[in-house]
Amino acid sequence: MRNVWHIWTATFFLMAGAVRGATVQNVTVRARDTFGTDASDVLNHCSVKAGDEYSAEATSRDERTLLDTGRFSDVTVLIEPLDNGAVNVIYMVQRRHRFQEPLTITGNAFLSESKIRKLSELRNGELIDSAILHERAVKIRDEYLKRYFRDVLVKAEIQPIEGSAGFATVTFTIEEGDRQRIKDFTFVNNVSIPASELRSAFGEYPWWNPLGWFSDTPVSDQALEDARQKAEDVYRDAGFLDAKVDFPVVESAGEERINMVFNVTEGDAYTVESVAIRGVTLFPDAEVLASTGLKEDMTGGRKAINDAAKNIRDYYGSRGYADTMVRPFIETVPGRPGRAVITFEVHEGQLAYIRNIIIRGNDKTKDKVIRREILVNPGEVMNEVRVERSGNRLRNLGYFSDVRHYTEKTDADDQRDLVYEVDEQNTGRFLIGAGFSSIDQLMGFLEISQSNFDILNWPNFTGGGQKARFGVEIGTRNQAGEVSWTEPWFLDRPMALSTDFYYRNLWYREFDVTRAGGSVGLAYPVAFGRVGVSYTLEQVDMKSVDNRNWYTKDGKSLIPGADDLGDWSGGSGGGWDGDESRYFKWQKDEFGGNMNSIFRLYWERDARDQIFVPTRGYRAFLFGDLSEGGVGDNQFYKLGANYRHWFPLPWGKHVLSLRGRLETIESYGDNELPIYEKLFLGGPRTVRGVRYRDVGPKAFDAPGYSDHHVPIGGQTLALGSAEYSIPLFKAVRVAAFMDAGSLGEDAWGGSMSSFCVSGGVGLRIDIKGFPIRFDIARPFKRDDRYTDTEVFSFSIGFE
Questions:
Q1: 303 backbone dihedrals φ, ψ, rounded to 5°
Q2: Which of 41, 345, 689, 762 has its CA 20 to 30 A from that of 17?
């Protein structure tokens, strides 16, 4: 009967093509349910009216509108031609029932009724149909599968309530079957690859390995098939091209416990005898062959062969030959088991040129914001490598949830239209919350930012590709406010104009530092990275300074011209009339309230694969600062270099990162260098495992009698660190690390302290915009015996 219904429906649809433009005589509704109530209210959602000219587009639109209401499980529009040339339009609808308590559950023993109710997510009055209940039954079944009920069956049944105008009860019938907890996944006849490596391919690790703590054990037939395929892929990629891993068989391992046993047929491990190519007419064979990267005696794994085929496609695609197809053939060498001749058959594409570049889907983002990221232009050859790279650039903007590109044929055989289709996403962010870190302790924050800002697009202020941010932090050790704006394409050139206005108050043990000011900068890309200049004008003040006497460990005063371990006599240095060696009070009197007028010249190169949690590439930064005395009060210069490199490792998604940092700072003229401009080392962002800022030069309140000290900073800093991170599951990683740093009292490496070396482990929670880091570390070697240990640290941000 159902097939007859579909044939009748199809007949009416075919007839609809012959009545286009006819007048609609009547519009009616027919309900395919047994609710026993009028369904004429359906017409309130329909645009087609009696007297209208018939339009298939209008009826299709009505069909979509009705389905979007969520009230109907099926909607069909029928067209009935009449003898007078007019048509009747009939909306056939299948209304959904409304669920009414109680929910009936039968057959469950292991899972409680309350647990199943929660999994079903059914609410009184909710619209339901067979498809919706099937989804809920699958959720219940998945929960049983996690508990090792491999043969569980879950059925859902709707029971209409007679005379209730569409209400129905629901019954879930469960056949649990036997619980079969999987003890182990074993492999037989796997001579060349250990079982542990095969198991790790589908997320099964020893109990002590954190990677296995958060992965689901494959239990269902589909999950086991996926596991079998992944294990087979390990063999194929290792050169065992004929390897076969069978679907596992169940082997009893005791009461309610089983083993899953995979049988392996390895076959030969192939290495490359030779590489050949055919079908190439446009370029020299040797040149195309060289692009494959395959060489004699290399492992002939499937991934290596597929990568070589892609390299050939990229070779052609980068030269404009679109739609080039490459197919690898593998032939064994008679009498030489495990040796393979790899032949790539090339079907050369046609040289294609770009006629137009079309942007679709950008309702908010301006066309020019997208086009300036595209590395090809109309009239150029269709360089498929640059086309793909352009798509990646658009994805990295963060403006779009999806970016697709494709070509459309034109009237000219050698021309194509290149289309980039984007799905826009929310680019604004509002964050408010509270946290705690080892440095800032208790803190609250608020941030409003827009990464696709347009200062001229009132009142939406979006779509221009600019970046704007307003942020406030209030904590026990840190108070800050900042407003920033960046135009990455100033004057429609790839020149970034940035402005920043800020207020920052940082609390240290010996004094507070307040900085209030603003900066403006320009950056321009060069052949290798980009160069930039900036100017900062700020007032720096010191508050809540420590009023005690402080000396070097040899008992000498830290204040120029002061007597050692006694009152200042005024004889040699002159200029300060304070008492004894009150170093921090002297610093406030000398440098508190001073202005900094700083010019910066810098170069940077960012070759990371992604900005947030990189896995490969590097970032390099060189800078020079000059604080001049014409507008400002403090006179100093500062030079620095910072380099970090990320290396993806060939197992799992493990990443090794290395970091190096060198800086030196020196005053010029007759001025001393303020303590708030000195360099400090130690703590969560530099050398972990020691107290914050405690590496390097120190001051003592009772030298020779007490080790009590405070850091006073240095003028040359050297830092190196290595970190090995392992992803556990989405947004969570574990890490092991080692840090080493030294801080010199003088500029240009003078009086460098011994290196402080530490190591430890940590946890990384990768929340975009709010990354969190927990570390446990201890120093293997301290720079001096006074540097204090701080085992645990917690911080927000990774740098």
A1: -65, -40
A2: 41
| Beta strand spans in 510-635 (E) | 512-526, 529-543, 594-606, 617-627
The model's pTM: 0.68
CA–centroid distance for 281 within its chain: 43
Question: Quick one: DSSP state of residue 73?
Answer: E
Burial of 267 (0-12, 13-18, 19+ CB in 10 A): middle
Q: Hey, is 40 helix, strand or coil?
A: helix
- 607 burial level (CB within 10 Å; 0-12, 13-18, 19+): middle
Rounded CA gap, 769 and 38, in Å?
53
Examine residue 674 and say whether the peptide bond preceding it is cis (omega within 30 degrees of 0): no
Residue 707: its pLDDT value, please? 83
- The residue-averaged pLDDT of 354-380 equals 94
Tens digit of each residue's pLDDT (9 = 90 or more) over 412-423: 989 999 999 999
Q: Exposed e or buried b for every residue in 105-137, given b needs 16+ CB within 10 A?
A: beebeebeeeebeebbebeeeebbbeebbeebb
Which tens digits make up the pLDDT trace of 257-313? 999 999 999 999 999 999 999 999 999 999 999 999 999 999 999 999 999 999 999
pLDDT at 436: 66
Angle between helices 302-317 and 285-292 (to 10 degrees): 130
Helix orientation angle between 130-146 and 113-120, rounded to the nearest 10 degrees:
130
Q: How buried is 449 (Cβ within 10 angstroms: 0-12 exposed, 13-18 middle, 19+ buried)?
A: middle
User: Do residues 604 and 620 lie in contact, with contact meaning Cβ atoms separated by under 8 Å?
Assistant: yes
- At 144, the amino acid letter reads Y
Peptide bond into 727 cis (omega under 30): no
Whether the per-residue pLDDT at 455 is higher than 50: the answer is yes
Q: Quick one: DSSP state of residue 645? A: E
